[in-house]
């Protein structure tokens, strides 16, 4: 049943991808938008069921290996999408989130070898209540920061398109320009709010990890590759939030920082596991 939930979720992601992009490319249809919302709610429910089933079957919170964390990250992305769409009623949220969710779930389901999908006994360091506290908060912070960074990337794309359009076609229609400015401001402000939520979660996750590390390994900080990149991730988004307070850094410049943060988050989450081993490399398989 767990595999069925994952497979159905993957199929629904594919359907939703087409719905969101058709809706944006051709016509903003209320029916298509609502259909996308309904499908995304079902994706979240299916992923929730799959995680609960795995939790019950193995008697520990399903965040002990790469496969489980990928499923949890996908759930986090879809859940955040549900919340943001209910608040903002914007099709672009699903249009940028759905491809990442599809990629993450597809990578977990299709690329990982079968032995990595199987649950195994926890290593001694993971036999702790901190597993749920630290890892779940970190994964939710990753999902939140990824979504916020995607919004900044979208802002940069639309910002550059707007500038090229105004330069090449010399559009002087006030209402059209006002509409674009409003959309850009909406995306920029939403990105700021989402990253503003993800940053404290990342901070809490890092602090919880330090306490757990001291309990498990006798040191709060050991400059493990994962710890180092978590710190780099924290510094990048701290710089972004600080730049938003500076009036000289508005619009494009902070968005570039957040876009860099998108790459940094993926390096911290996946890149470290692929490039080298460390105390956190439970999902390493190269």
TrEMBL record:
<dbReference type="GO" id="GO:0005886">
    <property type="term" value="C:plasma membrane"/>
</dbReference>
<comment type="subunit">
    <text>May interact with Ccs1.</text>
</comment>
<protein>
    <recommendedName>
        <fullName>Cytochrome c biogenesis protein CcsA</fullName>
    </recommendedName>
</protein>
<feature type="transmembrane region" description="Helical">
    <location>
        <begin position="63"/>
        <end position="84"/>
    </location>
</feature>
<keyword id="KW-0150">Chloroplast</keyword>
<feature type="domain" description="Cytochrome c assembly protein">
    <location>
        <begin position="63"/>
        <end position="280"/>
    </location>
</feature>
<keyword id="KW-0472">Membrane</keyword>
<feature type="transmembrane region" description="Helical">
    <location>
        <begin position="190"/>
        <end position="213"/>
    </location>
</feature>
<dbReference type="InterPro" id="IPR002541">
    <property type="entry name" value="Cyt_c_assembly"/>
</dbReference>
<keyword id="KW-1133">Transmembrane helix</keyword>
<dbReference type="InterPro" id="IPR003557">
    <property type="entry name" value="Cyt_c_biogenesis_CcmC"/>
</dbReference>
<feature type="transmembrane region" description="Helical">
    <location>
        <begin position="6"/>
        <end position="26"/>
    </location>
</feature>
<comment type="similarity">
    <text>Belongs to the CcmC/CycZ/HelC family.</text>
</comment>
<dbReference type="GO" id="GO:0015232">
    <property type="term" value="F:heme transmembrane transporter activity"/>
</dbReference>
<keyword id="KW-0934">Plastid</keyword>
<comment type="function">
    <text>Required during biogenesis of c-type cytochromes (cytochrome c6 and cytochrome f) at the step of heme attachment.</text>
</comment>
<dbReference type="Pfam" id="PF01578">
    <property type="entry name" value="Cytochrom_C_asm"/>
</dbReference>
<feature type="transmembrane region" description="Helical">
    <location>
        <begin position="255"/>
        <end position="276"/>
    </location>
</feature>
<dbReference type="GO" id="GO:0020037">
    <property type="term" value="F:heme binding"/>
</dbReference>
<feature type="transmembrane region" description="Helical">
    <location>
        <begin position="228"/>
        <end position="243"/>
    </location>
</feature>
<feature type="transmembrane region" description="Helical">
    <location>
        <begin position="38"/>
        <end position="57"/>
    </location>
</feature>
<dbReference type="GO" id="GO:0009535">
    <property type="term" value="C:chloroplast thylakoid membrane"/>
</dbReference>
<keyword id="KW-0812">Transmembrane</keyword>
<keyword id="KW-0793">Thylakoid</keyword>
<dbReference type="InterPro" id="IPR017562">
    <property type="entry name" value="Cyt_c_biogenesis_CcsA"/>
</dbReference>
<dbReference type="GO" id="GO:0017004">
    <property type="term" value="P:cytochrome complex assembly"/>
</dbReference>
<keyword id="KW-0201">Cytochrome c-type biogenesis</keyword>
<feature type="transmembrane region" description="Helical">
    <location>
        <begin position="91"/>
        <end position="112"/>
    </location>
</feature>
<comment type="similarity">
    <text>Belongs to the CcmF/CycK/Ccl1/NrfE/CcsA family.</text>
</comment>
<feature type="transmembrane region" description="Helical">
    <location>
        <begin position="132"/>
        <end position="161"/>
    </location>
</feature>
<dbReference type="InterPro" id="IPR045062">
    <property type="entry name" value="Cyt_c_biogenesis_CcsA/CcmC"/>
</dbReference>
């Amino acid at each position: 049943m767990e595999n069925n939930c994952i497979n159905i979720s993957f199929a629904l992601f594919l359907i939703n991808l087409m719905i969101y992009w058709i809706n944006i490319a051709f016509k903003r249809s209320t029916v298509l938008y609502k259909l996308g919302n309904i499908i995304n709610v079902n994706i979240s429910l299916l992923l929730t069921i799959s995680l609960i089933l795995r939790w019950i079957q193995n008697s520990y919170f399903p965040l002990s290996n790469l496969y489980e964390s990928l499923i949890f990250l996908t759930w986090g992305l879809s859940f955040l999408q549900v919340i943001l769409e209910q608040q903002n009623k914007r099709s672009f949220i699903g249009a940028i989130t759905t491809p990442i969710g599809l990629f993450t779930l597809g990578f977990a389901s299709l690329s990982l070898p079968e032995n990595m999908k199987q649950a195994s006994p926890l290593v001694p360091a993971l036999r702790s209540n901190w597993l749920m506290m630290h890892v779940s908060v970190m994964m939710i912070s990753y999902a939140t920061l990824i979504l916020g960074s995607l919004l900044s990337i979208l802002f940069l794309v639309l910002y550059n398109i707007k500038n090229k359009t105004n330069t090449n076609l010399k559009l002087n229609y006030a209402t059209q320009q006002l509409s674009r400015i409003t959309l850009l401001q909406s995306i920029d402000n939403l990105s700021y709010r989402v990253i503003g939520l993800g940053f404290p979660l990342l901070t809490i996750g890092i602090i919880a990890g330090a306490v757990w590390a001291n309990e498990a390994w006798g040191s709060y900080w050991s400059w493990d590759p994962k710890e180092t990149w978590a710190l780099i991730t924290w510094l990048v988004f701290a710089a972004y939030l600080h730049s938003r307070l500076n009036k000289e850094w508005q619009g494009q410049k902070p968005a570039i920082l957040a876009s860099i943060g998108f790459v940094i988050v993926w390096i911290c989450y996946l890149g470290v596991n692929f490039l080298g081993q460390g105390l956190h490399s439970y999902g390493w398989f190269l």
